[in-house]
Design brief:
This protein has about 240 residues and is an alpha/beta fold. The protein folds into two domains: about 5-125, Rossmann fold (3-Layer(aba) Sandwich); about 135-230, Winged helix-like DNA-binding domain superfamily/Winged helix DNA-binding domain (Arc Repressor Mutant, subunit A), CATH 1.10.10.10. About 40% of the residues lie in helices and about 20% in strands. It has helices at about 15-25, 35-45, 65-70, 90-95, 110-125, 165-175, 180-190, 200-210, and strands at about 5-10, 30-35, 50-55, 80-85, 100-105, 135-140, 140-145, 150-155, 160, 180, 220-225, 230. The strands form three sheets. It has a five-stranded parallel sheet, sandwiched between helices. α1 (about 15-25) links the parallel β1 (about 5-10) and β2 (about 30-35). The chain is globular. About 35% of the residues are buried.
């Protein structure tokens, strides 16, 4: 990550692209724009973006397909989805495919800017490696390196997770064998800027289970405590 944050805005509406670009540039960010998937893929191949803002509804490849593509490419930066207020289901699907946050149209540029700033803090923090000895939490076939901000498989290979998924897993690892409700998880993961849409926690936990559980339908690491929340079962 450089000193100047690099943002990519993908939207088929030229007025929306212009509005976002001008506002973010006014706040000292470097902004590229794309009118759809083809142009996004070209720019993505040539640049390292800290955050990519995707409109959900676009002709051709929509924002959900592009978010899925980015995560399949192990893109570790932030993804913000822009969706119409009537498309709540797209918010859910967006989070499921790896988006970090979303805003609903119409929105004020300063609202989007606040979301981008919050996400940049998390992305930049997770990209910074410290020089201290690794502090690892081992569970199942995986280990969480709290210093290097990485999830590793048994053979030492990095498992791709988003910055918010890492923060959530870190919150669990630092509070083993404790039942944590959604509000506690939001606070522990420093996600006060998330929309009060509590299913976002459930969706991210579902994504984490698919990556770390031997059988995600019968989780043994992140367990559901009905009516109370979730519990991270520490290794014995």
């Amino acid at each position: 990550m450089g000193d100047v944050s690099q943002i990519l805005v993908v939207d088929d509406d030229s007025d929306v692209r212009w509005m976002i670009k001008k506002y973010l540039e006014k706040n000292n960010m470097r902004v590229d724009t794309a009118d759809g998937g083809e142009q996004m893929r070209k720019l993505y191949a040539e640049n390292n973006y800290d955050v990519i803002i995707l409109d959900v509804t676009m002709p051709g490849e929509d924002g959900l397909s592009l978010a899925r593509f980015l995560r399949s490419e192990n893109y570790s930066g932030g993804i913000i989805m822009c969706t119409a207020a009537s498309e709540v289901v797209d918010c859910v699907v967006g989070l499921e495919v790896g988006a970090d946050d979303y805003v609903t149209k119409p929105f004020e540029p300063r609202e989007l800017f606040a979301r981008v700033k919050s996400l940049l803090r998390r992305v930049n923090a997770n990209a910074t490696l410290t020089e201290t000895a690794p502090n690892k939490v081992i569970f199942g076939e995986f280990s969480l390196d709290l210093e290097a901000q990485q999830l590793l498989s048994k053979d030492g290979q990095e498992v791709a997770i988003t910055s918010m998924e890492f923060d959530l897993l870190k919150a669990f690892a630092e509070n083993p064998n404790k039942v944590l409700n959604r509000d506690q998880l939001l606070n522990l993961a420093h996600d006060k800027d998330w929309d009060p849409y509590d299913r976002s926690i459930d969706i991210r936990i579902t994504r984490l289970r698919k990556k770390i559980e031997a059988d995600p339908s019968k989780p043994q690491i992140i367990k559901t405590v009905r009516g109370a929340g979730y519990k991270f079962v520490a290794p014995t």
